[in-house]
Amino acid sequence: MALTLKQRSVLPGFGLTLGFTVFYLCLIVLIPLSALFIKTATASWDHIWQTISSPRILASFKLTLTASLVSAFANAFFGFLVAWMLVRYEFWGKRIVDAIVDLPFAMPTAVSGIALTTIYSSKGWIGQFFEKWNGSGLRQSLDAYFVPASKWLTGLLPSMASFIPDSSAIKVAYTPIGIMIALTFIGLPFVVRTLQPALEDLEAEVEEAAASLGASRWNTFYRIIVPTILPALLTGFSLSFARALGEYGSVVFIAGNLPMKTEITPLLIIMKLEEYDYTGATAIASVMLIASFFMLLVVNVLQWWASRRQRGGK
After folding, report:
1. Using CA atoms, how far apart are residues 201 and 64, in angstroms rounded to an integer?
2. pLDDT, tens digit, for every residue of 78-131?
3. At CA 148, angle to CA 145 and CA 150, rounded to 5?
4. I need a labelling partner for 304 at 20 to 30 A (CA). Which of 51, 77, 107, 236 fits?
5. Using CA atoms, how far apart are residues 147 and 130, in angstroms rounded to an integer?
6. Dihedral pair phi/psi, residue 12, rounded to 5°
């Protein structure tokens, strides 16, 4: 009778590894999140509702969600272009560009916020050029083209025109535009780094075969490239959006923190903590946490649908 030797694994067995994983997740993730809801539940419903429904808090919800969503879409578009360039082309300084992508990860958020404020202020390197533009004309153009086309978003998201100051000059720092720039800055690496492996797995020979069969560039992009990278793109989008929702350090300086105009939700949570209103702070944080969970749920469903569609097409 042949003896079969049990193959030893480099890592510990399944039971020990699973136990350590569950313990780590409970200690670092589940217990703090549970404490957030438990602390909120200690307050009366009237106090919770009064806190999260105040005009100042609602204005911060609206600004934070809108700016995070716009910056996540911007990162999805520009992140795809950057990842495509880094994967498909060879050029001088490629490693430098690849390292610059990770710069928002390495920089302290406060440093990036101060740097962006300095650059985009009215006398900054870039902000001084926006001062020369006609903000009133740009606002009228956005009102004419974007508002009629997005009436179904009325009440959910403000129009793009509301981000443009109604004055003769366009200001970036201390406006919602500056907030979106800061959120785009800190969220871009998430999209690039999740797209790069997917694009590397997509061989160029597949596109050449599609072209040899008579497919146009648009058909090749829409029918071959997009279905392949869509799960990774959705992952990068969700990571960028989730990071933007809770970002504080890089936004608080460039936002200006004007009540009802440029106050982000994390700032109001900090203010509630400084006022020793812990239940109010946890109530606001719980709303943002539920919004993040809902967004992640939607993205995971879309990822599942895209993966299933991709497997069905093969």
Report:
1. 35
2. 999 999 999 888 888 888 988 888 888 888 888 888 888 888 888 878 877 776
3. 100
4. 77
5. 23
6. -60, 170
* Nearest Cα to Cα of residue 104 among 196, 239, 261, 195: 239
The residue type at 177:
I
Q: Report residue 129 as tokens.
A: 């050029």
Please give the sequence-ordered ranges of beta strands (E in DSSP) within 121-219, or none if there are none: none
Q: Which residues of 30-39 are buried (b: 16+ CB within 10 A; e: fewer)?
A: eeeeeebeeb
Q: Which tokens sit at 18?
A: 């699973």
The structure tokens listed for 247 are 């970002």
Contact 280, 51 (CB under 8 A): yes
Give the whole-angstrom CA distance, residue 277 versus residue 284: 11
Distance (Å, rounded) from C-alpha 105 to C-alpha 178?
Answer: 19
Tokens 């903590």 appear where? 273
251/110 Cα distance (integer angstroms): 8
